[in-house]
Amino acid sequence: MIDGQIQLANIFTADPLIAENNLVPLKDTQGLFLSSHLVPLASSRLDDNAVALINEISAAMTPDDLVTLNTRSTKEQLPADTIAKEWLRNQNFEG
């Protein structure tokens, strides 16, 4: 993709390669593609406090946060739980 063999690629906007390689995401001015959002999946047996905390965390995560988390995963090869715990700590979620 970077060597000029292709001019257009379908990649996720949270992919760290976009910024690393000075790629330009195109705007969807026609609204043809649905937004990709993180959706927490959990058991329906969660209590109200757990649901509230998950909703708070979900609302706090930005697209830039997601790119940063993906970058840490791919570049630093850190386990997901380490990356998540550090993000939560930095967001002042003590859980």
UniProtKB/TrEMBL annotation:
Molecular functions per Gene Ontology: transmembrane transporter activity
GO cellular component: ATP-binding cassette (ABC) transporter complex
Residue ranges of every copy of the ABC-type glycine betaine transport system substrate-binding domain listed in the record: 3-89
Database matches in InterPro entries: ABC_Gly_betaine_transp_sub-bd
Protein name per its UniProtKB record: ABC-type glycine betaine transport system substrate-binding domain-containing protein
Organism: Scrofimicrobium canadense
